[in-house]
């Protein structure tokens, strides 16, 4: 008899008892290769001694001090470390406990910014279809995943959604990647004009779309054009790197590869690497100064913001990612993973696309490669792949997205950066077994 309210109300998952390196073990001793870091969380694997030591030392020194009264050494150090490596102009860090909170914070920060600057008529956000920004009501409203939103639609703020930059589905015959990117980016300008640009607070997007599409990066030039449009209309650019940030794509911040600097960035998942729940909303000095010169107070806050133990974990993680070379390793092993996926599944009759960056890779599952038509959603392909992989001892992250009104299935892979060559082989073998039994 359990009293836990599980995600799936009709079944009880196995009990995880131990994590070591790239593996999780359950109470029967079964070993699972963590091919998705849970949900792109465990970037350093499961038993990193340096992060464990940092957490242990901090909790024994100062467990908690409320940010209504104090700052702390770990929070100051982590903010400095993040800003040192952040894109141009990013200068301030607001700590929270996870991804949805980071996005809520970004949305409220952007709104209050315009209240402070005397533009309170800016009341809406624009985002993209097939995006995911979190499950709290503000973040859910911003997202474009129809399935996650539909039950809560009456509670959600009206948000406009433009097309994602999803070349596999959207690029037209004879159109170059660059031309495709400009075309879909220009949808932002059309949408701004449709809703009146002076009513819009910000555009929010994931640099590499994670949960909803399965590791889809934008094409070259797309985000530069988005940045230009935001600047032209005085709209803030929020990049949601909750899943794709913190080295996952081979650079500490994913947007470095797109050559753009946003006004606000959200991070979480890999920041605590699973050792502590922590997220952060980073903003420019210009935004922060508006608060300083204006009301002097951000009307926001949660009890656990800037938690010293979570920040101590974040410090140890970011130090390993940067000084410890783990971001470089993600880039290097990511290329090997990509090649291994292409070698194994490049000709697979039901794999339509293999994509991603660094240790963030996605496979799109289709019924027919030529027409790119997805499987009938009633077949629940994503659930079958997840179950078959789990049975084979592989944790991966299959999702059924919505492709222009139709369901489409993909598998997201986001393994720890410590993965070895042999473990890449193991992942490919187990995924192959799962696909064979599920499709
Ligand atoms: N934003 C993005 C891009 C995400 O992928 C997620 C989670 O998958 C979130 C926000 C929400 O993060 P959390 O689940 O930590 O609340």
UniProtKB/TrEMBL annotation:
<dbReference type="InterPro" id="IPR005814">
    <property type="entry name" value="Aminotrans_3"/>
</dbReference>
<dbReference type="InterPro" id="IPR015421">
    <property type="entry name" value="PyrdxlP-dep_Trfase_major"/>
</dbReference>
<keyword id="KW-0808">Transferase</keyword>
<keyword id="KW-0663">Pyridoxal phosphate</keyword>
<protein>
    <recommendedName>
        <fullName>Adenosylmethionine-8-amino-7-oxononanoate aminotransferase</fullName>
    </recommendedName>
</protein>
<dbReference type="GO" id="GO:0008483">
    <property type="term" value="F:transaminase activity"/>
</dbReference>
<comment type="similarity">
    <text>Belongs to the class-III pyridoxal-phosphate-dependent aminotransferase family.</text>
</comment>
<dbReference type="Pfam" id="PF00202">
    <property type="entry name" value="Aminotran_3"/>
</dbReference>
<dbReference type="GO" id="GO:0005829">
    <property type="term" value="C:cytosol"/>
</dbReference>
<keyword id="KW-0032">Aminotransferase</keyword>
<dbReference type="InterPro" id="IPR015422">
    <property type="entry name" value="PyrdxlP-dep_Trfase_small"/>
</dbReference>
<dbReference type="InterPro" id="IPR049704">
    <property type="entry name" value="Aminotrans_3_PPA_site"/>
</dbReference>
<dbReference type="GO" id="GO:0030170">
    <property type="term" value="F:pyridoxal phosphate binding"/>
</dbReference>
<dbReference type="InterPro" id="IPR015424">
    <property type="entry name" value="PyrdxlP-dep_Trfase"/>
</dbReference>
């Amino acid at each position: 008899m359990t009293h836990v309210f599980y995600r799936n109300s009709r079944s009880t998952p196995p009990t995880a008892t131990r994590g070591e390196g790239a593996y999780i073990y359950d109470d029967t001793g079964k070993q699972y290769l963590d091919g998705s870091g849970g949900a792109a969380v465990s970037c350093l694997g499961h038993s990193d001694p340096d992060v464990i030591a940092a957490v242990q030392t901090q909790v024994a020194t100062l467990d908690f001090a409320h940010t209504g009264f104090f700052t702390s050494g770990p929070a100051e150090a982590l903010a400095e470390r993040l800003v040192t490596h952040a894109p141009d102009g990013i200068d301030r860090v607001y700590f929270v406990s996870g991804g949805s909170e980071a996005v809520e914070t970004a949305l409220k920060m952007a709104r209050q910014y315009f209240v402070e600057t005397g533009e309170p008529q800016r009341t809406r956000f624009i985002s993209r279809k097939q995006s995911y920004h979190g499950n709290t009501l503000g973040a859910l409203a911003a997202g474009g995943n129809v399935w996650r939103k539909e039950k809560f639609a009456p509670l959600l703020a009206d948000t406009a959604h433009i097309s994602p930059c999803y070349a596999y589905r959207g690029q037209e015959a004879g159109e170059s990647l660059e031309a495709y990117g400009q075309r879909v980016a220009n949808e932002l300008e059309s949408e701004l004009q449709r809703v009146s640009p002076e009513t819009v607070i910000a555009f929010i997007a994931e640099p590499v779309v994670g949960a909803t599409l399965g590791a889809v990066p934008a094409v070259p030039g797309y985000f530069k054009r988005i940045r230009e449009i935001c600047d032209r209309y005085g709209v803030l650019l929020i990049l949601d790197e909750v899943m794709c940030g913190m080295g996952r794509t081979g650079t500490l911040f994913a947007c470095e590869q797109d050559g753009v600097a946003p006004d606000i960035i959200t991070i979480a998942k890999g920041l605590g690497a699973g050792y502590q729940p922590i997220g952060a909303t980073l903003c420019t000095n210009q935004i922060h100064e508006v608060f300083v010169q204006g009301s002097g107070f951000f009307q926001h806050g949660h009890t656990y913001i800037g938690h010293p133990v979570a920040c101590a974990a974040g410090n140890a993680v970011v130090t390993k990612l940067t000084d410890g070379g783990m971001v470089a390793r993600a880039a290097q092993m990511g290329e090997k993973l990509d090649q291994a996926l292409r070698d194994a599944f490049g000709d697979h009759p039901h794999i339509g696309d293999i994509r991603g960056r660094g240790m963030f890779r996605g496979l799109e599952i289709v019924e027919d490669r030529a027409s790119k038509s997805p499987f009938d959603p009633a077949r629940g392909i994503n659930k079958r792949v997840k179950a078959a992989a789990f049975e084979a001892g592989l944790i991966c992250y299959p999702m059924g997205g919505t492709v222009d009104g139709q369901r489409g299935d993909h598998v997201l892979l986001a393994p720890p950066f410590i993965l070895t060559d042999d473990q890449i082989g193991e992942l490919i073998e187990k995924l192959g077994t799962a696909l064979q039994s599920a499709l």
